[in-house]
Amino acid sequence: MANAIPGDGGFGIVPVKADNLSPDAVRQPRLLVERIRFQVGVGLLLCIFSPMALRAIYDGVPISDPRILYSGLLGAAALLTGYYAARSMTPFRGATTTTYSVPTITIAFVIAAIVPVFARIDYSRIQMFTHFALSLAFFVLTERAMSRRRRLRFAVIPGGGVNRLPPADKLMLTRLKSPADPILEVDGVIADLDARHQPGWDQAMMRSLLAGVPVYHWRHLAEQFSGTVDVTSISDNSFGTLNPNQFYLRVKQIIDFAAAAILLLVTLPLMLIAAVAIMVETPGGALFRQPRTGHRARSFTMIKFRTMRLPDDPAAAGPDKARDAAITQDEDPRITRVGRFMRKTRIDELPQLINVLRGEMSLIGPRPEAVALTLWYEQELPFYHYRHAIKPGITGWAQVNQGHVAGIDDTRVKLSYDFYYVKYCSLWLDALITARTITTALHRRGAK
Q1: What are phi and psi of 193, to 5 degrees?
Q2: Please, is 155 exposed, middle or buried when counting C-beta atoms within 10 Å of its C-beta (0-12, 13-18, 19+)?
Q3: Containing domain of residue 267, as a range?
Q4: First-residue to last-residue Cα distance in the chain
């Protein structure tokens, strides 16, 4: 069960036992073999390190030997890539998982074996094959052990086509009676995302998503467990869910950290010059800190270069004053000359690289709004919090298409861009956003 979210807006799931849940559905202990850390840790130990160590012991070839070391690193990269790719393509743990793990691990090792050819790296083919055979055997046996023991638990939201779910031995379905029912220790929530639900159910789905409990379209689950697609009504099928691509988000997190560290070092001289210019022009510190709404509606402190004159504390005057202060108007008189240049060139955003290194932000994603604005938007715009299903970004799809906005009508359009990014988040979309961000900054467009 995901923990309750302490963030703004009162979103969270409370672990209280409901009358309509059987005791078995309240908690089913997770097996050690089901845990990601166990699978990855033991997999690397048995399938990668052990062959290297045994060769060092029996053949006298040290692990530091380039051929052995490169083979081990390539094998570890292939194991991790294949494992997380299989998990991302298998949203329901227990559903014919070997169908995904065998080809993904095989493809990952084939690619790992091709890389040295182009990079002209000498490696041991026998060792690589050993890593591959052990990895394949380990994950197939692991998934067999999980599938024999575990029954998947889903909470079902009534309405639409959920009554047509096919029977499955590995499923434990709990039908919720009202939107207020707590969702306990489940693998996900099932709903007909095309149906019109009674009031409250859409908010219940949003609470689940923000708490880390995935929401699936009923057809998606039925296809995963049956291995078939209903061809009698193929136009009604949904091939996605409300959840972003978890595999890519994990890869993206690694890319974000590495890129942010490099960018921080490269831009450090520019940031020092900017800080001095800010403090010379107006009194006060160079950095501006503000509570923003981030991943899963949790608040965090975002860091930017200060581009405005220091104001009085708007929070002391009430929420309306704080909200107005958080909105940047056209030709806002509070913006300094140095600040206006930094906004146009996006230099003021550079300190947010620290937020990326902290894990609070991503390089690309929906822009984080001030907490005061979030509280306002969530009252005016249905499902506003869906944009918080992924980490906020320094730049994003809405920024390169629309620029800076603050009013309700403009924010509604911005939200449609944010939802598009959450749904289609990918390496190719991020590459497009990066290119357009650079172009926008060079032409000094989109900022206020």
Answers
A1: -75, -10
A2: buried
A3: 246-443
A4: 43
Is 13 inside a domain boundary? no
Whether residues 192 and 260 share a domain: the answer is no
Strand 287-293 vs strand 299-305: parallel, antiparallel, or unpaired?
A: antiparallel
- Residue 170 shares a structural domain with residue 122: no
Q: How far is Cα 389 from Cα 349, in angstroms, rounded to an integer?
A: 22
Does pLDDT of 18 surpass 50?
no
| Cα-based torsion angle of the residue sequence 327, 331, 333, 334 in order, rounded to the nearest 10 degrees | 50
| DSSP secondary structure of 355-385 | HHHHTS-EEESSPPPBHHHHHHHHHHSTTGG
Local structure of residue 322 (DSSP, 8 states): H
Q: Residue 246 half-sphere exposure, CB side, CA atoms within 13 Å? A: 18
Query: What separation in angstroms does the CA of 228 have from each of 219, 220, 223, 446?
Result: 10, 10, 5, 47
Q: Kind of pairing, strands 152-156 and 171-175? A: parallel
131 and 160 share one domain: no
**Is 88 in the same domain as 185?**
no
C-alpha neighbours within 13 Å on the C-beta side of residue 34: 15
Query: Is 328 in the same domain as 258?
Result: yes
Question: d(Cα 80, Cα 98) in Å, to the nearest integer?
Answer: 16
Share above pLDDT 90 across residues of the chain, in percent, rounded to a whole number: 25
Asked whether residue 93 is domain-assigned, the answer is yes
For 439, residues 6+ apart whose C-beta sits below 8 A from its C-beta are none
pTM over 0.90: no
Which of 149, 182, 206 delimits the end of a domain? 149
User: What is the domain-level CATH number for residue 222?
Assistant: 3.40.50
Query: Residue 124's pLDDT is what?
Result: 87
Q: Does residue 10 belong to any structural domain of this protein? A: no
Whole-number pLDDT of residue 89: 57
For the chain, what is the radius of gyration of the CA atoms? 25
- Kindly tell me if the per-residue pLDDT of 187 is higher than 90: no
